[in-house]
Design a protein that fits this description.
Length: about 625
């Protein structure tokens, strides 16, 4: 016995319930292996192959299991790295956890007509396994049953990932009710899997990265598609009807770039984050009338998606939910939506195969969105770059419009009721060159930087009685804007607020436009600061109301306002920037300058009609004298 290798097999026999221990000599296996020392035939009396029976036996190449065996125990053949063939009995009903995991040479499994369950990790890492026969009575496939696994060499410490990378087909699975987590994860050659008419649960990641899987059919009893279920299935073209599915989990179909359609989704109530992310061939998604929430990036870069029907029960649309859906033309009514997240219909960056940025993809086909009477918030970049979007329904409950929300929506002509809006973010409507009106803004308290810059068709802005600040370039380049309503509470007007706006036209030629139509601005009794170039080149501006609280006027503030005749009370102004009123050729008078202590160079350059009102022996008088400007004394 010393020179012979002893194999101890734990086999359950037909003996009074005992455990039959069979010592077998590899060199003396002729009686059981027909002369092949690497083949082992299990004795006919055995009914169950015990746990760990052949675990780690690297000499074993072929095994024949008799018809009487109904169960293969946990780890029974685990790590048999040279096992190539195994003849399974017709009566086999159960394959235990890890039963064949790491059998890297195992090529195929035949029909298993009575098999009812496959345990966790049962065939995990069987990288040579090409096919599995029919399993018509199989009910459960355990977690990670055919999944990839990481193997660490004990001597070198080197880790290697092995998977069922050669598995191409799985036969009849008519009775399966449950497929476990990551069950087929990493089976990159898997092309087809039998119909699943009785499956009610497919756990997370079950088919993750099955890159050649083309279709999954007969899943009409499935109630949920869990997270990552089909992530990375780049060849998957169709999914059967899903009439009982109520939820689609996070990343469920992420990266399924060949997926063209999804069947009946009439009972789905939630679509998770990144659920259809990158499904660039997806043209339609069916009835979504029961959906209440659409997660972040749910349809991100679904560039073929042309329409979304009515969404009567949706209450929230997540960030980037439809970003980059360049073929999307319309979205139906959303009477219950309360929030639209950042970049929900915005743009995405695109890159070439080498990872170099090549541009952005926007929802350039989106033309209309139905009424959203319950909408409260519109996130940053929500509709950024929707260049064909012509109209938005009434938004009576919107309280905030995020930065860049409608940036570049060059076809947007009007906005509905905005009487609940309190804040308009930076660049919110910048570049909306067709926007003629924006409705009631009576509750707005702040208008962000460049909020309406480049809105060259905007003719009027109504009551702004609650506005306290107007950001830099807020209305820059609004060439049609004639008047601004009540600004009784405004405290600051930012730089270039009504100044110039530069852009490149369709011929890539740089253009500059100004607020050349602005004629008047009402009283601003609480205004404290006027930023640099705030009204620069407003060549039609004739009058500015009460400025009694202003303390500083920035450089170039009214530069080029050639029709400006008068400016109201400036008794609290302490500084006037250089070129502040340069080119105001019609300016005849400026209010009381009793408090001024600083006036910049060329502040009143080319103002031939101007007379300043100053105190005797004051800084303002000295300035007037030194610059040959007419002045008169203030009479208290």
């Amino acid at each position: 016995m010393d020179a012979k290798k002893l194999l101890t097999l734990a086999l359950t026999g037909l003996l009074a319930g005992g455990c039959l221990m069979v010592p077998a000599l590899a060199e003396d296996a002729d009686g059981q292996s027909s002369g092949n020392p690497a083949t082992y035939t299990i004795p006919a009396r055995v009914k169950r192959i015990e746990d760990y029976a052949f675990a780690g036996d690297t000499s074993l190449e072929r095994v024949k299991i008799p018809d009487g065996v109904t169960e293969i125990g946990d780890y029974a053949f685990s790590g048999c790295t040279n096992l190539q063939e195994i003849e399974l009995p017709d009566g086999l009903t159960k394959i235990g956890n890890h039963a064949f995991d790491g059998c890297t040479a195992l090529v195929r499994l035949g029909d298993m007509n009575q098999l009812e369950s496959i345990g966790e990790y049962a065939f995990s890492g069987c990288e040579a396994l090409e096919s599995i026969g029919n399993m018509p009575k199989l009910q459960t496939i355990g977690n990670y049953a055919f999944a990839e696994q990481t193997v660490t060499d004990e001597d070198s410490g080197t880790s290697t990932t092995v998977s069922c990378k050669s598995l191409k087909t799985v036969g009849n699975l008519d009775s399966v009710t449950r497929i476990g987590s990551e069950a087929f994860s990493g089976c990159r050659e898997l092309e087809s899997i039998g119909a699943l008419p009785n499956v009610t649960r497919i756990a997370f990641g079950a088919f993750r990265n099955c890159e050649k899987l083309k279709k999954v059919e007969g899943i009409g009893k499935l109630t949920a598609i869990n997270r990552n279920t089909f992530t990375g299935c780049t060849s998957l073209k169709s999914i059967g009807n899903l009439p009982k599915v109520t939820s689609i989990g996070e990343r469920a179909f992420r990266g399924c770039s060949a997926l063209t359609s999804v069947g009946d989704l009439s009972n789905v109530t939630s679509i998770g984050e990144s659920a259809f992310y990158g499904c660039s061939s997806l043209a339609g998604v069916g009835d979504l009338s029961s959906v209440t929430s659409i997660g972040n990036s749910a349809f991100y870069n679904c560039s073929a998606l042309a329409s979304i029907g009515d969404l009567p029960n949706v209450t929230s649309i997540g960030s980037s939910a439809f970003a980059g859906c360049s073929s999307l033309k319309n979205v139906g009514d959303m009477p219950n939506v309360m929030s639209i997240g950042d970049s929900a219909f915005g743009g995405i960056a695109t890159f070439d195969d080498d990872g170099n940025w090549i541009g952005n993809e926007y929802c350039i086909s989106l033309k209309e969105i139905g009424d959203m009477p319950k909408l409260e918030t519109i996130g940053n970049n929500a509709f950024n770059g929707c260049s064909t979007l012509a109209s938005i329904g009434d938004l009576p409950n919107v309280t905030s419009i995020g930065g860049w929300a409608f940036y570049g929506c060059s076809s947007l002509a009007s906005m509905g009721d905005l009487n609940s809006v309190t804040s308009i973010g930076e660049y919110a409507f910048s570049g909306c060159k067709a926007l003629a009106s924006v409705g009631d803004l009576s509750n707005v308290t702040s208008i962000g930087n460049s909020a309406f810059s480049g809105c060259s068709a905007l003719a009027s802005v109504g009551n702004l009685s609650n506005v306290t600040s107007i950001g830099d370039s807020a209305f820059a380049g609004c060439a049609s804007l004639e008047s601004i309503g009540n600004l009784q509470n405004v405290k600051s007007i930012g730089e270039s607020a009504f100044g110039l706006y530069g852009y490149y036209d369709e011929n890539d030629k740089y253009q500059i436009i100004y607020c050349t139509s602005l004629k008047s601005i009402g009283d601003m009794p609480k205004l404290e600061t006027i930023g640099a170039s705030a009204f620069s080149c407003c060549s039609s501006l004739a009058s500015v109301g009460d400025l009694s609280s202003v303390t500083s006027i920035g450089e170039y503030a009214f530069d080029g306002c050639s029709l400006l005749v008068s400016v109201g009370d400036l008794s609290n102004v302490t500084s006037i920037g250089e070129w502040a009123f340069s080119g105001c050729s019609s300016l005849a008078s400026i209010g009381d300058l009793r408090s001024v202590t600083e006036i910049g160079n060329y502040a009143f350059y080319e103002c031939p009609s101007l007379t300043l009102r100053v105190l005797p022996n004051s800084y303002a008088e000295d300035y007037a004298k030194s610059h040959s400007i007419k002045y008169t004394y203030i009479e208290d």
